[in-house]
Amino acid sequence: MDLVPALNEPLRQPLKSVLGPATAKVMAEHLGLHTVGDLLHHYPRRYEERGQLTHLADLPMDEHVTVVAMVADARLHTFASSKAPRGKGQRLEVTITDGSGRLQLVFFGNGVHKPHKELLPGTRAMFAGKVSVFNRRLQLAHPAYELLRGDTEEAVDTWAGALIPLYPATAKLESWKIGKAIQTVLPTAQEAVDPLPDALRAGRGLLPLPEALLKIHRPHTKADIADARARLKWDEAFVLQIALARRRHTDAQLPAVARRPRPDGLLAAFDDRLPFTLTDGQRKVSEEIFTDLATEHPMHRLLQGEVGSGKTMVALRAMLAVVDAGGQAAMLAPTEVLAQQHHRSVVEMMGELAEGGMLGGTEHATKVVLLTGSMGAAARRQALLDLVTGEAGIVIGTHALIEDKVQFHDLGLVVVDEQHRFGVEQRDALRGKGKQTPHLLVMTATPIPRTVAMTVFGDLETSVLDQLPAGRSPIASHVVPAADKPHFLSRAWERVREEVGKGHQAYVVCPRIGDEDDTPGAKKKAPQDDAEKRPPLAVLDIADQLAKGPLQGLGVEVLHGRMPPDDKDAVMRRFAAGDTDVLVATTVIEVGVNVPNATVMVIMDADRFGVSQLHQLRGRVGRGSAPGLCLLVTEMPEASAARQRLNAVAATLDGFELSRIDLEQRREGDVLGQAQSGARTSLRMLAVIEDEEIIAEAREEATAVVAADPELTGLPGLRTALDALLDEEREQYLEKG
Q: Which partner from 84, 293, 319, 640 sits 20 to 30 angstroms from 353, CA to CA?
């Protein structure tokens, strides 16, 4: 966020005397900090008050932590070992306390001499290291430490003020070293150019940027921190929303062919043969889409909805409207299983309307073709021919749609299913196949809180389907604590047998396939990983155990991503036809798979899946008239965070509520990472869920600024901040959408 050369200075050169090349290298490689400006925008995670000690009582296991505490006790022990057989091995044990708890530090060998002299009882210091357990007690082995002697001049300078900033750090670079480097470059903060327009800043009573940077790194009071945070959050929200507003503005200028369905065409014929009534939600969203399709610039719409709310039906009606208007529609699915499933269900829903050019096809009919990478040469040639001649109005496919050979007669609409699974380049390549920019409909089955939609998909208009179609059955969800109560797991398999006995079917989902060890280049786990945690349960092992054990006599089949496509399709067909009782699968069944007769799902090692993923998986049952049952099997203890997460999933069927919980438990980077083309998140201060109001206000302000001055010519500071946010990778992302 800088116009000024001083802030663009690489950390390696100007600060040689301060950082040294080694520190600069660690900052670049481990923290992504390359310039003075980057370092100034590396904000403290929290602050320690001089008189107040950190809570040792709630230290997280296996995490790198920084604590401020006092030495209570220090003892030097000697012991015999293979390296020091005569009992000359040395171990220093130091106990530190902060009033809330005690923690042991251990130093071995030659590493004991310096701490033995310095860490005397009564000494206060900052300690940093990885929390581990030894003899059932928490400890830090060989922590780095920095003494807090209030009387030396250096300490007074370094820890100026009453609050000690603690920075996001790494094992290779402790918080206080980062703090010292920042204090060295802090004077250059005066040269930071403010990205916010003066009127906006003054109107909202926000600090100037240089002052905010000074106060975030060297606060004297808690009010300083609050003021600085308020200002820096606005920067992040506003600059990101400017990027999205400019993108919306640019898209609005592009030409596109308006596509209006004929009153007596394909769409009308399709609606006439529907055996059910559309929900109010489906009608409303369809109208929004048809209005967009009828304009002469490209639609950019995000269609999100609950699992099973009928998004595919809405997308199909949009595709039919475009075919009606003389164009073609392409649907891009993330996996072959899903592409085949979509193709099958679209052809079934359309009946003879999908038999264009064939005997039995009606006058409005069109051809619906499937295009995947594993198709035979002859079928592929025919599909490509149908697309280029315009014979096929609808194509459903995987990445194979993007290849150079694929040409369309007149591509009018691109539907992208499960947006987050596609790279930007892939969507861009497909959109580039239209003579003019085609309309774009993005579908996601993971409900997204409004703020995330505004932050991540802020360039898309959003339509929400939150009503389930009539005839959908409720799904009961229960956590099965396999370690605490093994009889609960036995009962789970009995429930599966009972459901199969009633003529229904079941899914069993596992996190892993189970043939990884035989795969060339498979990642071998470090030995300590196995000791800490057994590998996730695998499809091939569990299927075998079930077929020989609790589900003996039932038809059990497996489905996973590494099977040949024809085999996958055959397994899905048998399951859909009711020939298989139990399907043991990986998350390939997560989206789009529709077997109304499946009523029960058992998710093994459920704690290894994310909240949204569990919600997605659960949506595969209860799709018919019989009630659904989802059993979340876990070995995690009652008090663990993982168990609480599973309890939350079991307690509600509201995907929007779950997505909020999911987001609160994960860092925003995960969320933004999907959309920001993998670039590291630009959000250092803004919390997407907490700062809903700021994001909404920033969006309004940004839209007004861009409408008045799309090129930002009158706001050079903002233009520079935008360039810093949109490094090359993100710029491409936003351009391509």
A: 293
Give how far the C-alpha of residue 102 lies from the chain's centroid of Cα atoms, to the nearest Å.
37
d(CA 582, CA 600): 9
78 phi and psi angles, rounded to 5 deg: -110, 150
Beta bridge partners of 598: 505
Residue 387 pLDDT class (50, 70, 90 cuts): very high
The terminus-to-terminus CA distance of the chain in angstroms comes to 23
Cα separation of 554 and 541, whole Å?
16
pLDDT at residue 231, rounded to an integer? 95
More confident residue, 601 or 178: 601
Tens digit of each residue's pLDDT (9 = 90 or more) over 446-465? 777 776 777 766 777 888 88
Q: How many residues does the chain have?
A: 737
CB-based burial of residue 377 (10 Å sphere; 0-12 exposed, 13-18 middle, 19+ buried)?
exposed
d(CA 106, CA 129): 11
User: Backbone phi, then psi, for 358, in 5-degree steps?
Assistant: -115, 160
Residues 138-189: pLDDT tens digits?
Answer: 888 888 888 887 655 455 444 434 578 888 877 778 787 888 888 888 888 8
Question: Whole-angstrom Cα distance, residue 328 to residue 472?
Answer: 32
How high is the pLDDT of residue 527?
37
For the chain, percent of residues with pLDDT exceeding 70? 83
Q: Report how far apart, in Å, the C-alpha atoms of 711 and of each of 297, 341, 605, 731, 733 are.
A: 20, 45, 51, 15, 19
Confidence of residue 85 (pLDDT cuts 50, 70, 90): low
**Is the distance from CB of 207 to CB of 215 less than 8 angstroms?**
yes
Residues 6+ apart with CB under 8 A from 505: 499, 575, 578, 580, 581, 582, 583, 595, 597, 598, 599
Element (H, E) at 699: helix 692-708
pLDDT at 421 over 70: no
CA 141 to chain centre: 33
**What DSSP character marks residue 60?**
P
Token pair, residue 45, equals 């995670």
Q: Report residue 471: phi and psi, to 5°.
A: 90, -5
- Residue 735 binned pLDDT confidence (cut-offs 50, 70, 90): very low
Alpha carbon distance 240, 377 (integer Å): 46
Nearby residues of 113 by Cβ (< 8 Å), 6 or more positions away: none
Q: Angle formed by the axes of helices 728-736 and 222-253, to 10°?
A: 50
pLDDT computed for residue 86 by the predictor: 59
pTM for the complete prediction?
0.68
Query: Which DSSP string corresponds to 431-497?
Result: HTTSSSPPEEEEEESS---HHHHHHHSTTSEEEEE--PPTTPPPEEEEEEETTT-HHHHHHHHHHHH
Instruction: Please name the residue ranges forming H helices in 159-310.
Output: 175-185, 198-203, 209-217, 222-253, 266-272, 280-293
Q: Is 235 left (phi over 0), alpha (psi -120 to 50) or beta?
A: alpha
Rounded CA-CA distance 501/480 in Å is 22
Per-residue pLDDT band at 471 (split at 50, 70, 90): low
Instruction: Give, for 96, the enclosing helix (H) or strand (E).
Output: strand 89-97
Name the one residue in this structure whose structure tokens are 């993971």: 446
Is residue 350 pLDDT above 50, yes or no?
yes
Q: Which residues contact 68 (CB under 8 A, 6 or more apart)?
A: 48, 53, 54, 98, 124, 125, 126, 127, 148, 164
Structure tokens given for 632: 């979340």
CA distance 190 to 364: 69
Cα–Cα distance for residue pair 51/148, rounded to 1 Å = 12
Q: How far apart are CA 335 and CA 158, in angstroms?
A: 55
